[in-house]
Specification:
three-stranded antiparallel β-sheet; globular; binds ligand T4K; 15 strands; alpha/beta; 381 residues
């Protein structure tokens, strides 16, 4: 009989530097008396992130959602934007907040990202862009999507909220499309407590994004765009800079946990993880599994509940589908008949606890629990 954990094991825990290192960095901020509106920590973090993300430019924001709102606004989009229903609420909401209709397109069975071959059928004279999501950090078929964008004269935005450190053939994921958005929320691999950024290779776009995040203020005498307050402050940027120093160790620890999960899952029927192609560097943001209820012995929801009994708090990301929210379910593209793959997969996915400090012993114990649930799905602790 396996005993429940004595303390809760969450889906994630933020990377936390030693408090003394944070305080020492914050004392630089205090000394400067510069707290926000583009100070030295902000400038330094933008430069460091260009190197790490391998992108020509980075524009920091106070969160990923505001970054996405500004990306859509900055590209001057209108009408309809094609997107995936299998994502966090912020993706669809950023479209709707720009007074644009989200048009949902079904996802690919393997990557769980928007299916490129289904995009073209949904293009209408009103379509102005594709907003694709690298869900769980697994890259979309960026070559196909970028090609569709070029062929049909559509802008391409990637929601890379989960894809920090994802690379394809050594190329930073944020260099594809017109613009990419990364989230630096506390639940993300790299975080600034709350935060996010836009990356683009078009420096005139960067200028526009930077204006839009600061009320459209060009200088003391001119306001030239209807901007918002999307600025990252110096405290956030300073914490981000300290966190950058922990990134390699965090990735190593997550990679060790992923190895254990993968080894153990290979012997349990009806539960599988996502394999990435060899040319892709994994973001190590989430560890998602898919449950085949018939072969595993119970539905994903039952496994989720049973794990609670052991103090293990998995998450059913991204259930429910955005297309089923009351604000979107009446859209023509939201019909479940048009989204059969997403409608099925959203019932199968479960994100397992995945963060460096949980340690490999706890990963083994979680697998012991999953194995025992597989053998006896109806029993309770
Ligand atoms: N696009 C996509 C595809 C996204 O996934 C997101 C955000 C965005 C856009 C928007 O980016 P941001 O504007 O957020 O930068 C969380 C995050 O709040 C959200 O950032 C993230 N996606 C989403 C997938 O996950 P919840 O509601 O699931 O978080 P919550 O509070 O339930 O936290 C999950 C677990 O993490 C907790 O059970 C315990 C642990 N936790 C959480 C926090 C906040 C901690 O240990 N410490 C903490 O401080 O949304």
């Amino acid at each position: 009989m396996i005993k429940p954990f004595e303390f809760p094991i969450y889906v994630t825990r933020p990377m936390l530097p030693k408090i003394d290192n944070v305080l020492s960095k914050l004392s630089d901020v205090w000394d400067s008396q510069w707290l926000t509106n583009g100070g030295p920590q902000h400038a330094l973090l933008e430069r460091r992130l260009c190197e790490i993300l391998k992108t020509p430019s980075v524009s920091l924001f106070n969160n990923g959602t505001n970054a996405l709102l500004v990306a859509i606004q900055g590209l001057r989009l209108a009408g309809e934007i094609i997107t995936t229903p299998f994502t966090f609420a912020a993706t669809a909401h950023a479209i709707a907040w720009n007074n644009i209709e989200p048009v949902f397109v079904d996802i690919d069975e393997e990557t769980m990202n928007i299916a490129p071959h289904k995009i073209t059928d949904s293009i209408t004279p009103k379509t102005t862009a594709i907003l694709a999501v690298h869900v769980f950090g697994n890259p979309c078929d960026v070559y196909a999507i970028d090609n569709i964008g070029k062929r049909y004269g559509l802008r391409v935005i990637y929601d890379a909220a989960h894809a920090f450190n994802t690379e394809i053939d050594g190329r930073g994921i944020g260099t594809f499309g017109d613009v990419s958005m990364f989230s630096f929320h506390s639940t993300k691999l790299f975080h600034t407590v709350e935060g996010g950024c836009l990356t683009t290779g078009d420096l005139s776009l960067k200028t526009r994004f930077d204006l839009l995040r600061n009320f459209g203020i060009k200088n003391e005498d001119e306001v030239i765009l209807p901007g918002i307050n999307g600025k990252m402050n110096e405290v956030q940027a300073a914490i981000g800079l300290v966190n950058l120093g922990l990134l390699d160790e965090e990735r190593k620890k997550r990679s060790d946990i992923a190895t254990i999960y993968k080894q153990r899952l290979s012997t349990i029927e009806g539960i599988k993880h996502c394999e990435l192609p060899n040319n892709v560097q994994n973001s190590l943001q989430y560890f998602v599994v898919r449950i085949n209820a018939c072969h595993f012995g119970c539905h994903r929801d039952r496994l989720h509940e049973r794990l609670h009994e052991y103090n293990v708090f998995t998450r059913k990301y991204f259930n429910p589908l955005c297309s089923t929210y009351s604000c979107y379910c009446n859209l023509p593209s939201a019909s479940p008949d048009l989204l059969p793959v997403a409608t099925r997969i959203v019932q199968e996915t479960l994100c397992l606890p995945f963060y460096g400090n949980m340690g490999t012993d706890n990963a083994e114990k979680i697998m012991d629990i999953i194995e025992s649930i597989h053998h006896n799905p109806t029993l309770s602790v």
